[in-house]
Amino acid sequence: MINKQNLWFLTLFSLVLVLGVYYVTMPNELILSNSKKETTANTKKTNAKTTSKEASTLEAMRVSLEEERNEAMTSLQEQLTNEKLTTDEKNNAYEQLKYLNALQGKEENIEKKLKADLKLDCFVKIDESNIEAVCISTKHDKTLANNIMRNIQEEYTDRMDITVKFQKK
Known about the structure:
alpha+beta, three-stranded mixed sheet, 3 strands, 12% strand, elongated
């Protein structure tokens, strides 16, 4: 005779099996549309916080850069877990991962500094010794660009190539 514990096990196992089969046979379009709806909902929450169209263009730049970096980080993490790679290759992947994390933190710090010091919404992208800053401002002059460059350069001891671009408010 079958006892209660075995009955519960069979019931739950069959439920998991049915849900697994349902998920595997579900059309990809349905899965993708659900994930797009979640992404859209998250984007709407983020966009509700931004007050202007220009701020959303900065957010789009940030999201694009973040996606790019996430792909690189995922690739590096896969290298770290790959058993076929040598220790040196894994160390290089780990160092690159650390560098990307530090780079992301540095960009965020510079954006916060520009917002605090100059009251500007900016997007900052660092690529080795090149730094690109896109700022939203009604005033587009050399003095403001120079102040932005000085604020960014204060974060570094070495000379950096800094590019400042303005977008109208």
